[in-house]
Each structure stands twice: as C-alpha cells, then as structure tokens.
C-alpha cells in the first residue's frame, strides 16, 4: 500500500508536469496543436459561454479543494498523505479539459509585427515562467506538488509543515508565482479576443486567489506573516 501511495504521488506529478508544459505552449500559442486562438471559431455567444464556464470550473475546483474545510470533509476517503497529490491530479484534469474544450474567438486586439519587439515579448514570456517555476523551489517544490507527503508516508516518517522563509523573490514580494503567471497571460505578440478573455478571466482569478491565500497563511502562521505582509508588496516591489 505504501508503494502504491508513492507511485500515485509520482504519477500525479508527472501528469501535471506534462500538462503544464503543454499549457505554456497553449498560452504562448506556439509548438502545440491546440492553443487559445487555434481552430475554427464558433459563434461568439457559444464561445463565451463555453470559455467562461471552463474558467469557472477550473477556478471553483482549484479554490474549493484548497479550503481547509473541504480537506477535513474528504479526509475519510483522501487521507493527508495523498491529499495534495489528489489536488494536483484533479487540477491537472481541470486544466487539460479547459485547454481541450477552449473555443477561439475571432478579432485582433493588438498584433506586434516587429521582429525586435516580438523577441522582447518572447523574452518577457520566458522570464515569466522562469519566475513562476523558480518560486516553487523557494518554498518547497516537492511539498507543493504532493511528492514530499507521499514520500514521507512511504518511508514511514511523520509529516512536518514546511517552514516559511523570506528568500530571493520573497524578500520583496509575497506572490512571485502569481506574478509569473500574470506576466505570462499578457506577454503575447498577438492578442486575439479569445486570448484577451482568457487573460482577463485568469488574471481576475489570480488576484482573488492571492487574497484568500494570504488569509490562509495568516491563519496558519499568525503574527509573523501579518508583519511580513506589512513590509512587503504583493507582486510588484515597492508598488503593489
């Protein structure tokens, strides 16, 4: 049973990693067959309904499963050592569904034709994902994606909470992962109406998510995190 738990954690992580790499191409609109703007555009009303529904599905799943009350409610069927891996797996499925069923919407908001500016935007896009990925290791990458929990169960060790440290990005901003995502959502040379809908919707969710994440962190860490919030900004050093 312990081996099964360990394999479950690894499989959930590998599936997430594969889908997330595809997601980068999906958002950046390169190297993958299905992107935000690819395919034949249906009617605007249909596309809006489907796309907003997909983002709501992803957002509700992402937020609901992260709530402490939900974790307690499912603890009988999903014990702590596989809870995070299960969250990662279900989130991965939700992300894959959003990409698969996403409907393109015609119309160009902006189109950068200059090769030099395209390179600048591409560099900004790459930097966004580097920040996002690096930030996961500044906390605990393997705990965040459930591998640490399943490994500790496998080797019969008790789980201990990850200690929060103010390292690198976290010295000046509280949400470097979210910053990376927000940068990536908007750093595209060609912004279609469909891509704009995605960028706006996901940006709104990201901003809301930061609020609830901070509430949870204050509840968990108490006064030290409150003081940390007072001396740092959310996503832009010294500004916001």
Structure description:
- The chain is mostly helical.
- The protein has one domain (2-231).
- Helices cover 68% and strands 3% of the residues.
- It has helices spanning 2-28, 44-64, 68-73, 80-101, 115-139, 141-144, 147-154, 176-186, 193-221, 223-231, and strands spanning 108-111, 190-192.
- The protein has a two-stranded antiparallel sheet.
- Helix 1 packs parallel to helix 4 and helix 4 runs antiparallel to helix 7.
Q: How many β-strand runs?
A: 2
Strand line-up in the sheet with most strands: 1-2
First-to-last CA distance: 47 Å
Question: Helical proportion?
Answer: 55-70%
Uncertain runs are none
Q: Which series of helices and strands comes N to C?
A: HHHHEHHHHEHH
Number of helices: 10
Mean pLDDT rating: 94
Large-scale geometry? globular
Count the domains. Answer: 1
Q: How does the helix and strand content classify structurally?
A: mainly alpha
Characterize the main sheet: 2 strands, antiparallel
User: What percentage of amino acids are in beta strands?
Assistant: under 5%
Rg computed from alpha carbons, rounded to a whole number of angstroms:
19 Å
């Amino acid at each position: 049973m312990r081996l099964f738990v360990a394999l479950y954690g690894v499989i959930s992580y590998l599936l997430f990693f594969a889908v997330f790499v595809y997601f980068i191409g999906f958002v950046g609109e390169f190297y993958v067959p299905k992107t935000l703007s690819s395919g034949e555009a249906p009617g605007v009303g249909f596309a809006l309904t489907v796309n907003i529904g997909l983002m709501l599905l992803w957002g509700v799943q992402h937020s609901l499963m992260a709530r402490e009350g939900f974790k307690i409610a499912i603890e009988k069927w999903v014990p702590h050592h596989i809870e995070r891996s299960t969250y990662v797996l279900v989130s991965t499925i939700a992300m894959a569904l959003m990409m698969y069923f996403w409907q393109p919407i015609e119309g160009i908001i902006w189109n950068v034709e200059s090769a030099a500016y395209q390179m600048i935007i591409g560099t900004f896009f790459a930097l966004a994902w580097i920040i996002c990925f690096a930030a996961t290791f500044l906390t605990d990458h393997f705990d965040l994606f459930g591998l640490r929990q399943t490994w500790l169960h496998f080797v019969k060790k008790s789980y201990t909470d990850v200690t929060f440290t103010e390292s690198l990005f976290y010295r000046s901003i509280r949400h470097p992962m979210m910053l990376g995502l927000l940068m990536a959502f908007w750093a595209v040379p060609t912004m279609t109406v469909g891509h704009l809908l995605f960028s706006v919707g996901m940006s709104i969710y990201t901003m809301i998510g930061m609020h609830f994440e901070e509430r949870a962190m204050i509840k968990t860490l108490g006064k030290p995190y409150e003081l940390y919030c007072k001396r740092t900004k959310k996503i832009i050093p010294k500004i916001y």
